[in-house]
Specification:
The chain is of the alpha/beta class. The protein contains 10 helices and 16 strands. Helix 1 (about 10-20) crosses helix 8 (about 300-310) and helix 3 (about 80-90) packs parallel to helix 4 (about 110-120). One of its GO terms (molecular function) is nucleotide binding.
């Protein structure tokens, strides 16, 4: 059965998700909405460098046709995105969003969380916050790894992630500003750093059965001022401008940081002393578990994959407000076998025959 999808928000990330879903055999995009006057009225397929689809971009989600799922890729701020999510739920859409604060906001935004949960259940649909981070790398993945130790004492994660493929989202990190401009923008509230630390820490603590005393989120700080010009897909960082920032947060229990997270977001260059990479360390009572990616999980690619791989899982899930950790792992796994054969795509791996029971 083909599932019908509506897209809300067609920035760099929304377009990439649409482009991926247009290649799928199990879903069909039937509608798309965006506030940008430059894309309103255009064909979605043409917009994402594909063949025309007959889906015209409208200016208001209220004008979207009926669908099984709406994917929202608009803003990181849950206070703003909730105004888009609730009407969609009330119209009977299952809803998935890459809004970072939607990943697990029960502690940070309890009233909004309850409203989303109540609305979804009242209309028999599901709402899910997803993405690479939050969603997988700093919450669901380490939570799964803790299955290998009987008691966890501490979780430490360090990420250095390449952001050169993102667009408008980079403004919240202060990329491309001089140090003086960065300081002024931070004081005015324009530079805030990473949304989602509190949600990742809350999700991880909840899964471990921990009650935290507090969650501390630090201020984002410049890490690399570029000595060269760095060209991304949507933004260029010139010499003398900030090319990387660092942001960190901790979950405290008994005065001790039991969850310790830090991310460096940057436009990395081979001449830099630091390169992209990811390190996860789980200090258990019976063993220490360490997972390292020497090149790092590519942030943009991982975010797109985490979202598009979960689309059918959201449609099939129980009604209510769920997190990635609530969904079975097999429903979140790669859906590459559902991609159409197309130029530039590797041939799909054939399905293995069903396993036979033993005995």
């Amino acid at each position: 059965m083909t599932q019908r999808i509506a897209m809300v928000g067609l920035g760099a990330t929304g377009r990439a998700m649409a482009q991926s879903l247009l290649q799928r055999t199990d879903v069909e995009i039937v509608g798309a909405a965006d506030r940008n006057p430059e894309v309103i009225g255009t064909d979605l397929g043409t917009l994402v460098a594909s063949a025309a689809t007959g889906v015209t971009v409208v200016d208001d989600p209220a004008s979207l046709p009926p669908a099984d799922l709406a994917i929202v890729a608009t803003t990181s701020d849950l206070n703003h995105v909730a105004a888009t999510l609730v009407p969609l739920l009330e119209r009977g859409y299952n809803v998935m969003s890459i809004c970072e604060e939607l990943a697990y906001p029960w502690s940070s935004h309890p009233e909004i969380s309850r409203r989303l949960d109540d609305t979804a259940k009242a209309h028999g649909v599901t709402v899910l916050g997803t993405g690479a981070n939050p969603g997988v790398l700093m919450d669901t993945l380490p939570l799964l790894l803790t299955a290998l130790t009987q008691r966890v004492d501490r979780v430490i994660i360090r990420r250095r992630t390449n952001m050169s493929r993102y667009g408008a989202i980079l403004s919240k990190f202060g990329m491309g500003l001089t140090p003086a401009q960065f300081a002024a923008a931070q004081e005015s509230g324009e530079v805030v750093g990473h949304y989602g630390f509190e949600q990742s820490i809350s999700a991880l603590a909840s899964g471990l059965g921990w009650t935290l005393d507090a969650i501390e989120v630090g201020r984002v700080s410049p890490a690399v001022v570029s000595e060269i010009t760095r060209v991304g897909e949507h933004v260029t960082v010139e010499r003398g401008q900030i090319a990387a920032v660092t942001h960190a947060a901790r979950g405290l229990c008994g005065g001790r940081a039991v969850i310790d997270l830090e991310i460096m977001f940057g436009f990395f260059d081979p001449s830099d002393a630091l390169t992209a990479g990811d390190d996860c360390r789980i200090e258990g009572a019976d063993q220490v578990i360490e997972l390292t990616s020497l090149t790092g999980f590519e942030s943009f690619v991982s975010t797109i994959a985490a979202a598009v791989n979960a689309v059918t899982a959201v449609i099939d899930a129980p009604s209510g407000f769920l997190s990635m950790g609530d969904l079975p792992a097999r429903t979140l796994a790669s859906k590459g076998a559902r991609l159409r054969e197309a130029s530039g795509l590797s041939p799909m791996v054939q399905h293995a025959p069903p396993a036979r029971s033993i005995g």
